[in-house]
């Protein structure tokens, strides 16, 4: 073997022989005590770390939990933004209210100053200042100085008097604006009438002939078959009122009207009760009301409801039909531009006190309560219109005299005209029987704060009339009649 090849070969052999010996030497070297103790501890630490890592991996939130948390944070951010926006809006509103209050206070102060200035300027009794008033009083004589002082005193007194008069006029005007206008029976034109009066059974009466004279009407007696006086009539070409000496019912301008008392014959002279004249007859003989009231807001009351079905005929319930008619009326009134307030819009039962409280709260111009009638006798049919009983009067089917005043009695005259126009309009629209305008102590109309009527639009106990009331066509006729009544009452107000 060549020398150049032998040396590498020998070196490789040496390595092959020495490798096992080196491994044996390393393996057989004994470990120290520290090394023996460290090996198990390291293994335990590694196991603990692996276990902790496994547990930590188990506690990591899922994708769904992360998404839910993000959604919750977004909601919180949105709520916070909304609160900030609301706070900014509140601040803006507060600033606006403060500015409006300041502007109003300034306007009131300016108006007061202008009124005072106007009062001072309009006082004719204020002496003008002397043209020769000097700038300095040093050179004035005692007499001239006294004259100037007297003029100043007179001017000051005149100014005070004018300002006081203006303030009194403003206070009177403000009080008049705060006082509701009513058609009081004591209107000056009525009070100026020359009417003979008598008292009979503690009831005051006025002479019917005198009433006819004051209204430019002709008077005549009516007689029965036995040629005895049965009543009286007063009339002209456009107005006519018929009275009975036996019963309370009469006829005024073609509509049956129940008076509070029958006509009285005293020494063969005709009298009607003063309360009938003031609250029933006078409003119906007039072409216009002496004092005008509003007619923009109307409260519509659907009778009964909820636990109170009202009159019933089999499965037919009054509460259902009154609400149907009331809603139809609401729709038509709103189309005409009226503001309508409903006492109920569903099958609920506001108590009578609740309905009266609503009237007091919203202060409507008119109150219309819708009902259906019923009787144990199946024959009666037709329409009746009710209003509150005036003080000193009696119910149509009663004899007890009313002595206590209710809020509705402030509007007796207007309620009388409203009831008349409603009855007239309903009869023309439906062709129903005329059962007249009547008086009854009904809570909702007695405690109304405006002219008020209660409409009995028909009898559920009468089968023929029940079928009509249940039909949409007849309900629309009823609504048309109410609208015609409102139109008639409106012409009375103008």
Q: Can you give keywords for this protein?
A:
Copper Amine Oxidase, Chain A, domain 1; Aminopeptidase; alpha+beta; 3 domains; 6-stranded mixed β-sheet; 494 residues; 5-stranded antiparallel β-sheet; 13 helices; flat
What does this structure look like?
There is one protein chain. The chain has three domains: 105-129 and 145-179, no CATH class; 188-285, Copper amine oxidase-like, N-terminal domain (Copper Amine Oxidase, Chain A, domain 1, 2-Layer Sandwich), CATH 3.30.457.10; 297-493, 3-Layer(aba) Sandwich (Aminopeptidase). 51% of the residues lie in helices and 17% in strands. The chain contains 13 helices and 17 strands. The strands form four sheets. A six-stranded mixed beta sheet has the order 13-10-14-17-15-16, sandwiched between helices. Strand 6 and strand 7 (255-258) form a beta hairpin. Helix 7 crosses helix 10 (412-430) and helix 8 packs across helix 13. The radius of gyration is 48 Å and the shape is flat.
CATH class of the largest domain: Alpha Beta
Give the CA-based shape: flat
Count of runs of 4 or more consecutive helical residues: 13
Strand content: 15-25%
Q: What's the helical proportion of residues?
A: 40-55%
Give me the CATH architecture of the largest domain, please. Answer: 3-Layer(aba) Sandwich
Describe the main β-sheet briefly.
6 strands, mixed
CA(first)-CA(last) distance: 149 Å
H and E order: HHHHHEEHEEEEEEEHEEEHEHEEHEHEHH
* Order of strands, widest sheet: 13-10-14-17-15-16
Total separate domains: 3
- Tell me the CATH superfamily of the largest domain: Zn-dependent exopeptidases
Unreliable parts: 16-32, 120-137, 179-188
Judged by helices, strands and strand pairing, the structural class is: alpha+beta
Q: On the 0-100 scale, what is the average pLDDT?
A: 84
CATH topology of the largest domain: Aminopeptidase
The radius of gyration is 48 Å
Counted beta strands: 17
